[in-house]
Structures are given as structure tokens and as C-alpha cells.
Design goal:
The chain is of the alpha/beta class. The chain has ten helices and five strands.
Length: about 270
């Protein structure tokens, strides 16, 4: 198998997990790190998707805490969080230099860096990797910005398909109102002003997010996204999320513990 490997020392599981999570980087003697998406792995990959204001990050945080309570090794990764790429992207945004293609390639570079250093090696080590946005964010945003769908998908063709991808479905107006409550001023690219949708940044943002929703909806069936009604209260959403994840826990031989925990949560 071609893929990053992390050296393990000793026989202590706790020691191995701490070492791997801290130093999850590809070995120097690896010729290439991209592995086929269909290749078997020891861990599980769970992603959440949705427009800003859908509540996906809150749900992923709750899921993370629950999985840790099951004594599982968990690692969370976020979109645009690679330190290697962050500064370059920030400079490009400030100077208004990003075209749809450069925007797409910067995000793809960010993803590739995190995939090589964290996602793949930790999956191989048996972790539950939780992704706050995955390749589907690129599929939605880049295509809306005018990039060719086939080109975008080819860039991310090496990425492992998640075991579960939750799409938090919420009306655009609801999501926009949630964002504007805590963010009175929208940033240029965030509002989609580079796309000339409207001279009003708030109207541009609403149109931009609406088009992203359309892309997500088109992927529910084709990409196997699990749609969650994000208009419901937080607890109801989380119960459905945990119910789905419990099936993955069962595959790892700890289904009874997960089911008991899920039943207790439902009694609250």
C-alpha cells in the first residue's frame, strides 16, 4: 500500500495513540502518500457538511465529546486549518488577488497537507477522524464559483470516502440570519462579492449561499450524504447523528456500550 506511515514504539495502546496524534506526519522513505480511496483502513472517517449557519460545527463538537466518552481515539480536523497554507491564503484575500481557480487550488493544497499529515495516518492507526467540512465543500463552493465539476473532483480523487457524511439541511434565510446575528460585517470573498452577484454584500451573500445549497442538495443522493433537518432542536439532531454513528461503533465491536449511551441520551 502506498500511504503515509507513522512509527509506533512499545506495546502500550495509550502511548501509541498519544504519539501518533502528536506526530502524524509521513515517513521520509515513502515514495508517495496518495492512496486509493477504496483501500481498507482501521479507523472511521465522519464528515459534516452544510452552509455557514447550519449548526454542523456544534453537532460535530457534541459528537466528538460523546465518542471520547466511549474511550475512543478521536481527532478533529477543520477546513482551511493548515498552517502551511493559511498565511498565503490570507494575503491573497486581503489583496483581492484570488481567482476562482487559485481559490480552489489553495483550498486543495490545504486539504492535501492535512490529509497527508493527519487524516490518512490517523485513519490507519484506528482513529475516529471527524472532519468539519470535507471534499464536498470544495465540490459545492468551487463549482458555484465557476470551476468545472470534473476538474474539481479530479483534484480530490485521492481522498478517502467518509464512512458517514452528514449534511445539515437548513433554509438559506435561516442560515443567513444566524450568521448575521454574530457577524455584522461580511468579508469580501465570504459574501461572494468576487462573483458580481450583487453590489449589496448581504444580498450577494444570500445568493451565494443559496447556490451552494443547490449544490449540496444535488449531492445528497449521488454522494450518499445523510441529510439532517437542522431546523430541529440541537438535542434531536444529535440523537439522530449518534444513532447513525452507533452502527459504526458496532462494527468495531463496542455496539452494546454505544447503544446504552444512546438510550441514556434519549431519556434527557
Amino acid at each position: 500500500m502506498i500511504g503515509p506511515r507513522t512509527k509506533r514504539r512499545g506495546n502500550g495502546a495509550a502511548r501509541r495513540s498519544r504519539t501518533i496524534e502528536k506526530t502524524a506526519t509521513p515517513s521520509s522513505n515513502i515514495k508517495g502518500w496518495i492512496a486509493p480511496a477504496s483501500e481498507p483502513r482501521a479507523g472511521r472517517l465522519i464528515a459534516v457538511e452544510g452552509v455557514d449557519g447550519s449548526g454542523k460545527s456544534t453537532q460535530l463538537h457534541l459528537l466528538e465529546q460523546w465518542l471520547r466518552h466511549q474511550s475512543l481515539n478521536v481527532f478533529k480536523t477543520e477546513w482551511k486549518s493548515s498552517e502551511t497554507v493559511k498565511e498565503i491564503t490570507s494575503r491573497g484575500k486581503k489583496k483581492g488577488l484570488l481567482t476562482p481557480t487559485t481559490f480552489s487550488l489553495l483550498h486543495a493544497t490545504d486539504f492535501a497537507d492535512r490529509y497527508e499529515r493527519n487524516i490518512l495516518p490517523l485513519l490507519e492507526a484506528g482513529y475516529f477522524v471527524l472532519a468539519d467540512r470535507y471534499v464536498y465543500t470544495a465540490y459545492a463552493r468551487d463549482i458555484v464559483r465557476g470551476c468545472h465539476p470534473g476538474w474539481v473532483r479530479k483534484i480530490y480523487s485521492y481522498a478517502a470516502k467518509p464512512d458517514l457524511t452528514f449534511y445539515f439541511r437548513v433554509p438559506v434565510d435561516v442560515a443567513v440570519s444566524r450568521i448575521l446575528m454574530g457577524r455584522p460585517k461580511l468579508k469580501y470573498y465570504e459574501a461572494g462579492m468576487d462573483m458580481n452577484l450583487s453590489n449589496d454584500p448581504y444580498e450577494s451573500y444570500r445568493i451565494f449561499q443559496g447556490r451552494i445549497v443547490e449544490q449540496y442538495e444535488s449531492m445528497v443522493e449521488s454522494e450518499g450524504l445523510v441529510a439532517i433537518d437542522a431546523n430541529r432542536v440541537i438535542e434531536e439532531q444529535q440523537l439522530e447523528v449518534r444513532d447513525r454513528v452507533t452502527r459504526l461503533l458496532a462494527e468495531k465491536g463496542i455496539g452494546a456500550m454505544a447503544t446504552e449511551a444512546l438510550q441514556e441520551y434519549g431519556k434527557r
